[in-house]
Design goal:
By secondary structure, this protein is of the alpha/beta class. The protein has two domains: about 50 residues, Roll (2,3-Dihydroxybiphenyl 1,2-Dioxygenase, domain 1); about 55 residues, 2,3-Dihydroxybiphenyl 1,2-Dioxygenase, domain 1 (Roll). About 20% of the residues lie in helices and about 40% in strands. A four-stranded mixed beta sheet has the order 1-4-3-2, covered by helices on one side. Strands 5-8-7-6 form a four-stranded mixed beta sheet, with helices on one face. A hairpin with a 2-residue loop joins strand 2 and strand 3. It is globular and about 45 Å long. The two termini are about 20 Å apart. Pfam families: Glyoxalase. Keywords: Dioxygenase, Oxidoreductase. This is Catechol 2,3-dioxygenase.
Length: about 130
């Protein structure tokens, strides 16, 4: 059996993406490396550093996604209030994609936010996986 261990994002601005995932998703720095002159960052959820990481790679082209493409990363939060708080913060920063919305089980309550590279990030409450 195979296990998903990481996702690597090739981004335009490493520092902006690291700040976003730290501030919005609470990810923590696991590794900060220089490889062949390139700054590579590993981020993980606290306590899950050996289970799953986000690798942030430099010099990416920027993420372009059509309006009808709902590909995204999903993060679970502890309450609807937390979803609302992040949505309000994102709205103030001009990066709110989908305002908070309640849908039937198993979707729950969620909002969508754009990371600095244009990736769509869902923050939800009430999904059975989170």
């Amino acid at each position: 059996m195979a296990y998903l261990t990481h996702i690597a994002l090739h981004v335009k601005n490493v520092d902006a993406c690291v700040r976003f995932y730290q501030n919005y998703a609470g990810l923590r720095l696991v590794r900060d490396r220089q490889v062949h002159g390139k700054h590579i960052i590993w981020l993980a959820e606290p306590g899950k550093e050996s289970q799953f990481i986000f690798v942030i790679l430099p010099n990416g082209p920027g993420h372009q996604q059509s309006q009808n493409d709902f590909s995204h990363f999903g993060f679970a939060l502890q309450s609807k209030a937390e979803v609302d708080k992040l949505a309000n913060k994102a709205k103030q920063e001009g990066i709110l994609l989908w305002p908070p919305k309640q849908e039937a089980f198993p979707v729950g309550y969620y909002c969508g936010i754009l990371d600095p590279d244009g990736n769509r990030i869902e923050f939800s409450y009430g999904q059975p996986l989170g």
